[in-house]
Amino acid sequence: TAEDGYALWLRYAPLTGSAKERLDQFNPVVVQTGEADPSVKVAEEELRRGLTGLLGHVPASSGGSPIVLACNDGSSGARGHFNVAAHQQANGRSLLAISAADSVGCLYGAFALLRELSLGRDPATVELAQAPAMPLRMLDHWDNPDGTVERGYAGRSIFDWWHLPEELSPRMIDYARANASIGINGVVVNNVNASPLFLTERYLPKLKRLADAWRPYGIRLYISVRFSAPIEVGGLKTADPLAPQVKAWWKAQAGKLYQAIPDFGGFLVKANSEGQPGPQDYHRTHAQGANMLAAALGNRGTVIWRAFVYASSGETDRVKQAYEEFKPLDGKFAPNVILQVKNGPLDFQPREPFHPLFGAMPHTRMMLEAQITREYLGQATGIVYLAPLWKEVLDAPTGHGATVAQVIEPTGMAGVANTGSDRDWTGDQFDQANWYAFGRLAWSPALSSDQIAREWVGQTFSRNPNFVRQLVPMMLSSRQAVVDYMTPLGLAHQMGTGHHYGPAPWVCTLDRPEWNPCYYNRADAEGIGFDRTRSGSDALAQYAPSVAAQWADPRTMDENDLLWFHHLPWSYRTQSGKSLWDELISRYDRGVAAVDSMAREWQTLQPYVDHERFVDVASSLAIQRKEARWWRDASIAYWQSLNHLPLPAGERPPE
Ligand code: GCU
C-alpha cells in the first residue's frame, strides 16, 4: 500500500517460511536496560517495533532469548562501532548481545541486527562487528525557508519552519530513524544558496527543537550560512573576514548557537560561486574567509567550505577552475575546516571523471559531495540507481597513492538530499534506494552496489529470491542506461539550461559561454567532443601523471570518458570497430532498449509487489521510456543537422 512507500526500508514486513520459523523459535525478548540514555531508549523502541513487524506480533516479555544492549562496553575505536553476537546461555537458550562503546553505537547495532533479521538471517548465528569508515556521514538539504527545495523533485521541504518550534512533525522522527538506520550522523537543514534568516533570533528556537529531536538518533545539526549575513541580518556595513566587527559578529552568532545547541555541528559555506557572496568580494582568499568562521566556532564545530566555484570565462575551461583556485591554498586552512568537493569537476553529470582535487591537497581535510537528488539524471522518474556512479568515483585511484575513498575516509561524505513532503519521501519509489545507498556507502565504501541493492530490495519490497534475482540486475544496469540515452561516450551537460531536465545540445546563445550545452559538446560538421589534452584546455594535466596517461590516448582509454577528453572526427574508429557516429548511435539505442527492458521486466514482477507501488513504478517507467526516446531522437537529430550523416542501417527499438 501507499503506507509502505512512507515506511521506506524500515517496513519490517512479517517474515515467512523458514525465516519465520527460526525467529519464532528464537523467541526474542527485548531486555529493558533501565538506562535513561535517550539513544538506548530509542534502540529498545526500534527493536520492539521491528520485531513486532517481523514476528507478526508483539515480542514476548519473558521466557525467550534475551536481546541485551551493553552500550558502555569499555571498547575503543571509531565512534559508532558495535558488535552483535549470539551466545549460548547455561539454560540452553540463546542470548543476543549488542555491545558498543557508546549509546549511538548500540543504536546502530540494533538497526544492523534488524536489517539482518529482515533479510531472513538466522538470529542464532548473527555475528556482526562494524565501525563506520568515516566520521562525517552527512545529508545536505537544499531546502529554503519558504518551503521550496532547490533541485528537489519530491514536493515541498520536509522542514516546517512555519510551525516550528511549537510543532514538531512526527515526520521529523521518522526521518531521523531512517537516517540513523544507515548511519547518517549530520544534517545541513538549509540550501547552500543560503538565506540569512537561519542566523536570526527567530530561527534559533526552531533549529534547537530539531537538534533536540535528532540528538537521540546520533544526528548533529548544521546550517548553511550566507557569507554576507553580517550585513543582511547583523546591520554591519561590511562582511570583510578580516574586519574586527565582522569577526566579533560571527563569534557572537556561534556563541548563541552553542548556547542553544551544545552539539551544533557547524557551518556549510558556498562562497564566491554562482553569485553567492564570499571573501573574494573583499580581496581575501577562500582560506581567509573559512578560517575566520572556523575561529568563531572554535573547537566546538566545523566549517565545511565548498570547492564548487567557477567564474564566467571564455578562456579557462570550467572544469579546471576549482583546482586552479584551491590547489594553491593547500595547507592554509584551519584544522576545523573541511573542503567539500563534488565527485566530478563539472556538476553532478550522469558520468564524470573524478575531481582532480582528490589526492592533490595532502595538507587539507577533504570530503566528497555527491548528489542524491537526480538533478541531471531525469529527476524523479524511472529507475536510476546511483550506487554504481558513486562506487566508480570512490574506487578510482587518484594517482597520488590513494583511491578517492581513501582520500576522504579520514573526513567524510555528504549527499545532497532527495527528500520532500511526498508520501514516498523521494518522489519515486526507487529514489529511496539512492538515499539508502548513499548512507550505506558513507558507512562503508567497500560495500558493493549489488549488496546494497539486495539489502534495499529485501527490506523495501520483497525478500522473495526470484524477485530479488530479477530486480537487482535491473537496478545495477540502470545508471549506464541513463548515461547511454542522455550523454553517451563522455558527453556532458547537454541538458536544457536552468531546469536541467530534457535535451538541448543545440543551445549556444546564452550570455556566459559555460552555460551553453554547445560549449561542452563542441560539435560541428567535422566532429564532436571537448579537447582537454595538451592541444586543448589541458585539464588532463591537473591529474596525477599515471592517471592522465590513462586518458591521454583515445585509442586505448576507457571510452566511457572519450568525448570528455577528446575532440574527434565523426569518422574516428572506436574500439568496437564502428565509426564514432555509428558507435554514438548504438549507445543511444542501447540506452533506450535498456529502459524498455526494465519496463517489460517490471510487468513480470507484479505478483511480488503491492498494487499501489506496482502501478506507481510502472507509470514512472512509462515516463522514462518517453524520456529516453526524447533524449536519443533530439540529440541525434541535432548531430545530423551538423554532420548530415545517415543513420546506420538496422532495427530501432519500436515506439
Ligand atoms: C548546481 C545546481 C545549483 C546549485 C549548485 C551548487 O549548479 O544547478 O542549483 O546551487 O549546483 O552546487 O551550488
TrEMBL record:
It comes from Qipengyuania algicida. Homodimer. It catalyses: Hydrolysis of (1->2)-alpha-D-(4-O-methyl)glucuronosyl links in the main chain of hardwood xylans. The keyword Hydrolase applies. Belongs to the glycosyl hydrolase 67 family. InterPro entries: A-glucoronidase_C_sf, GH, Glyco_hydro_67_aGlcAse_N, Glyco_hydro_67_C, Glyco_hydro_67_cat, Hex-like_dom2. Residues 8-60 form the Alpha glucuronidase N-terminal domain. It is an enzyme of class 3 (hydrolase). Its EC number is 3.2.1.131. This is Xylan alpha-1,2-glucuronidase. GO terms for biological process: xylan catabolic process. Keywords: Carbohydrate metabolism, Glycosidase, Hydrolase, Polysaccharide degradation, Signal, Xylan degradation.
